[in-house]
Specification:
CATH architecture of the largest domain: 4-Layer Sandwich
Helix content: 25-40%
Radius of gyration: 27 Å
Strand order of the largest sheet: 15-14-17-18-9-25
CATH class of the largest domain: Alpha Beta
Strand content: 25-35%
Structural class: alpha+beta
Shape: globular
Distance between the termini: 25 Å
Number of domains: 4
CATH topology of the largest domain: Phosphatase 2c, domain 1
Number of helices: 14
Oligomer: single chain
């Protein structure tokens, strides 16, 4: 997806190898200027080709700013060293200041590919914790077609603790998205080594001092204990977080002044502590949320506080089954009539005051009881905040465990007791236990994985443990819960998830997919394929005729199901149009020997 985004980016992008006279890759804008070294423009009187030669020779990055050609628009050129095909090389980015909005600078209007790059680099999911309701949202600036460097992230640290981070990298376009990605990666690496705010900011400071495009970035970093509500935090050049109290009162937390990352070597970091009480809401935001004039308040911070309080007070806003995610609603609320002045990232952490009780079902191991188990478990999982896609996998796995007990535990005798329990620990790990008091009986055909039901379960959840006891069998299923963050509803359709349905009218189920098979669409496709094939034990076909984008995540799913089918003695049939991009992706991925392409 990132390569696709770079292909359609408004900046001209070239990748050169020192061993070859011509570039090994260029995007659409570079081809319009001229694909070879001779096509590199002159900026501020300096031939970019000369800049490239210097970077290839010295291995040191270089940046120049100035007019593009004689009297052209202000332009930034960045040349960065990199490895290309096991040899030294460089990447060249030529970006006029208004390339994304002024169509006269380029022969044709650019597609908004940079935003897709930004979205692909934001966290694909947030932890789903029993004591916290987390939601995140990113919206691009309305006045530009280029994504900026605003970002958010959450890092589970264990024992109910989670790191909450919001930042803003300098600039916009591909360089800002790249800087954001590097900064987020450095933050995660630092937090997993030592999560203390002072240690993380010191590490990010040192990182930013060595990376020209990261220097000057702002960041807020805090560690929240979901159980006690204690928040320890620090910030570098970032606005203070907002707290909405249970009674609706608002206040901004104290943040001692500190320069942005990398701008002042060895800057001191002051760590502050605050206790977020139950029912209170913490709102982290990037600079874009308070950019521009506030039409209904004397200050943009006042406007943000007013909007956040109204969102939190809305009926159902902070319930798992609520109508809208609070982070997205807050971002929408601070939007000016003409749109967002700057990119906006919002991260919300609401400390629940009503912890959900574990689920306990005691019933008879009879197939007639299974629909009731599914209904009650579905309601319980929905209340946790699980989306439909995740619920389907858990429901199918638990259904298989219950079906095994109903069909095998009391074979040859009257059905006996069966219990189903479900609970979530402080780190958001769901544990479902299905127990009977009968006798374990291996199925007639044992594939080496203790039965078909176990095969299905292990494909749908993170961990399955089978315990055979003197009287009864216990099956324990574990799943780490996550939820998807909100992104701009106006983003290009290519980044939206796919539509996946199962057609059971023919001789075998056909899973039909349309739209963009990104990471989320691939997961939907995986669940439906495993569900339709009963965990890979029965034949199924995959119809990709309506797919508009097929990512590497989709390739991994097809590969996994094809391998299961091979091990089970059947071959996956995949329908993809001859000459189409989906067919091409499947062919170059080496799947031709594992699936039947039609």
């Amino acid at each position: 997806m990132l390569v696709a985004a770079m292909e359609t980016a408004p900046a001209a992008m070239y990748v050169f190898s020192a061993a070859a006279p011509e570039p090994v890759w260029v995007n659409a804008r570079a081809r319009e200027l001229g694909a070879g070294r001779a096509g590199l423009p002159v900026v501020d009187g300096t031939p970019v080709a000369d800049l490239l030669e210097a970077v290839l020779r010295t291995g040191k990055p270089s940046t120049i700013c100035g007019p593009l050609g004689p009297g052209g628009p202000p332009t930034t050129v960045m040349v960065r060293p990199l490895r290309v095909r096991d040899a030294s090389g460089a990447m060249v980015v030529v970006e006029p200041e208004d390339a994304a909005t002024d169509t006269s600078l380029w022969p044709t209007p650019p597609a908004d590919g940079v935003e897709q790059a930004q979205l692909s680099l934001l966290p694909p999911s947030l932890p789903l914790l029993p004591d916290l309701h987390l939601s995140g949202s990113y919206h691009r600036a309305s006045t530009e077609q280029r994504a900026g460097g605003d970002w958010f992230d959450t890092v589970p640290l264990g024992a109910g603790r989670v790191a909450l981070v919001v930042g803003d990298a300098v600039g916009h376009g591909v360089p800002a998205a790249g800087a954001m990605s590097r900064l987020r990666g450095a933050m995660r690496s630092s937090a997993l080594r030592d999560a203390a705010p002072a240690a993380v900011l010191a590490s990010l400071d040192a990182f930013a001092a060595q990376m020209e495009d990261v220097e000057g970035a702002s960041v807020f970093y805090g560690v929240l204990d979901a159980g006690t509500g204690e928040l320890v935090y620090a910030a570098a050049g970032h606005p203070p977080p907002l707290v909405v109290e249970p009674d609706g009162a608002t206040r901004f937390l104290a943040v001692p002044p500190r320069p942005p990352l990398g701008s002042l070597p060895e800057a001191a970091t002051t760590v502050t502590r605050f206790v977020l009480e139950r029912g209170a809401t913490l709102v982290l935001f990037s600079n874009g949320a308070v950019a521009g004039p506030a039409p209904e308040a004397s200050d943009p911070l006042d406007r943000l506080a007013h909007v956040a309080a109204a969102v939190v007070a809305a009926p159902g806003a902070l319930q798992a089954e609520g109508p809208a995610e609070p982070a997205a609603a807050i971002a929408q609320g601070v939007r000016n009539p003409e749109g967002w002045v700057d990119d906006v990232a919002v991260l919300v952490a609401h400390r629940r005051d009503d912890a959900q009780e574990p689920l306990q079902l005691d019933l008879t191991a009879d197939p007639a009881a299974l629909p009731g188990v599914r209904r009650r478990l579905s309601r319980w999982l929905t209340a946790l905040g699980m989306g439909e896609q995740d619920r389907v996998g858990v429901m199918v796995a638990v259904g298989e465990a219950c079906a095994n007990a109903a069909e095998h535990a009391y074979r040859g005798s009257e059905p006996g007791p069966m219990s189903v329990t479900a609970r979530v620990d402080v780190d958001g790990v769901l544990t479902v236990t299905v127990r009977d008091e009968g006798t374990w009986r291996p199925p007639d055909r044992d594939p080496g994985d203790r039965g078909r039901g176990l095969l299905i379960m292990r494909q749908l959840v993170d961990r399955v443990v089978l315990e055979e006891q003197a009287k009864g069998t216990t099956v324990t299923l574990n799943v780490r819960l996550r939820r998807s963050p909100e992104t701009d509803e106006e983003r290009p359709s290519a980044s939206s998830s796919a539509t996946v349905t199962v057609d059971r009218e023919g001789p075998r189920p056909v899973v039909r997919v349309s739209g963009a098979v990104d990471e989320f669409g691939a997961e939907q496709m995986r669940i439906r394929l495993l569900e339709a094939s009963h965990g890979g034990t029965g034949r199924v076909e995959l119809d990709l005729v309506g797919v508009s984008l097929f990512s590497s995540a989709g390739v991994r799913v097809v590969l996994a199901v094809a391998r299961i089918g091979r091990d089970e003695g059947w071959r996956l049939v995949v329908h993809a149009p001859e000459g189409g991009i989906t067919r091409h992706v499947l062919e170059i991925s080496g799947l031709g020997g594992l699936v039947d392409l039609r």
